[in-house]
């Protein structure tokens, strides 16, 4: 019997076609997604290890160029150092003489000292060597000609005599270098110095690294195109973006609100910090205020973007424009993409206006300025929209776009990690989606999505080496300034701190109201009757919001300004809650039995409103000069918080009592709904939002109409072509001695005259000790007219019961018109007291009541009263002048150039612009413990303070100007700068930190 196979073979004896001859299948989009995704991943992995171009700065000095030279290194220690001195110079010096040092022997007492390299003549004769506070020992000089050389590096510091090691210490004891100083005269055997500065952060992208980055970007784009083609083959009608909707009446209102806020709104606490960094005149962008000027890597691409923006204009108006444009983008995403996805309620006429109120409540207090929060808010919304698009359309490309957006957002700032929360919140439907896409199973899908996830890592080290980035992270972690995750409560503590701008009512409102609203959304989405609210997307939105709040714990700092990263998803959650808690929605949700829901919502809003309205209308720095007196407002003799709380409690008690009365009567019936006069919780919440928005807008609107400098007047001046910021409205007291008031009358002082420090200079003054007074002094005409204050500079503090008064009179022998207390700030820092003379006064004197008891004497000192002789700041510091701009003030000086930090040196600036005398936050820039970049030049100068005054507001202390005077004549050493290619793993050892 013949089998079927045998029969077929007998009929058709032709052998089968070999596999090699069969036609090959053309590569499909899934194949391209796999190949291009793999190329992207490999290029991204190789990118951090690729070489970068690093500058190398070598400084050389010898005594022939002068006995002192300024070489203020930044970081403080060099990569390597070699100092030499001849034995004849050591023998000729008296024991104990410092022959050579890298820090001055007589630094400014107000500066924080640093430990350098000291070569000291020792008995014997011998040479004592000390580096970074560590004694290497003493070696005899002996007889005959010889040369000592000291070599110091990260691993070892040793002393050689004619090339033979005589002293050595293992480990990193490299000295701090502020300069080169010697008393040895020029000639043979005089000291010399040769060092290589630490420039590990001063790098630029190398050719190979640029090529890898280009390949990675092109590979990513190709991968996305391939994924799109895969989606089109399965789902031909899928669009990545929805069709744009027509403009609505609310859109120009929101745009106008954002534009007005851009013009008159407040600065943030870190606008000056960021402006001072990105406006660095050349070189890389480092943290110019602390952490040894290390770059912000892996979060530094945002700074580079701002630098390019600031290269067009440094005016406040221009620098704040990106955040305003991002506000428009965020509004369009919220109103056009997010809300329609959350349910049919988005089509109601009232919803856009509710959304506008919620959006404004979040955006206005947090998002204007240079901080990264608006970028994170928009990036999170993009990720949310893309994820929901992927879930709704079962498409893979939107998911890849979401991963790219989340990665880009995370590389802006640590708080950007919340951009991944929409992906996590939608994990179940996304996994379901990926399992159903059989056309992309296994490697193509995994590789394509992984490429999208890892590609943003290019921005973390795009012009830095991997080793330098890791070192910058180590520096920030070891120096400190961060707060661990488990102390997240500090953020909420600051939010509720009375009188602190971090806890203003404008910042309390969106955070507290949205946290309460989140609980309301949970109740709204349970069961049926959701009044047009889509359960799935809303629950994912809420889960993402909760995860975002938890993700904030990972940020290294705990400032309330960082709540701004929640603005996008927070506004969406608030809108859903407001829509779900209207009267109509509650009736649908509860089938008419709204009493319990209304009572619960009213009780919660009473508490939230009380916490919000108890805050103050307070803003940082220049925005806080003319704030509204919200805490002093009275309505019917009561504060708004009392009225809000009283009305809320009254409504809850009355309605609850009414319900109990109805339920316990003869005809016991439990009311289904509260009386009609009781507003729905959403209505009360919108009233609260309206109150706070009105306080913000009206407060800054009133400020905009004031005479003198305001943020609004600065914007107007910028439009007129005057973009120098606050500088044009400041006056400087360049010479305090020129304004000392002359003595008048026959009355002699009863207190002796002593020297008073007024900030690097001395004026006649009195000790605030004993009982007595100074001579009577004639007031200047400008003081008698009320145009200028009487200025008294003080140091120290008063003991309990002591007093220092400024007595005013019409004449020396006339009656006293007023005796104003002169405040003393305490401490050793001179502080100005500015007092306005009362009408009719023509003379003034200081009166002291500080009895000496048990031998204890007050150490406080007050200068003789003076009138400030003022010069426009623009005449003292013309446009383009280089100065250190302390971080609290750097945002308002667009015409000054931030001091240069380059070639491994901080240079020797002549000027420093600091915050008011009462604010010492700028001191970190000069503190070695905090890694202050200008700690080394601070050792070389005496800081002469020059008080500043605002035109039209003479009693306000707006800023302090400091003139840096070198303590001794010094030459400047110009480095020899070259370039070299270093691999991504190249390291010059660790930077040695102080403290």
TrEMBL record:
It is a multi-pass membrane protein. It is found in: Cell membrane. One of its GO terms (cellular component) is plasma membrane. GO terms for biological process: Actinobacterium-type cell wall biogenesis; cell wall organization. Residues 1-11 have a biased composition (Basic and acidic residues). It comes from the Bacteria. Residues 54-200 form the Arabinosyltransferas concanavalin like domain. This is Cell wall arabinan synthesis protein.
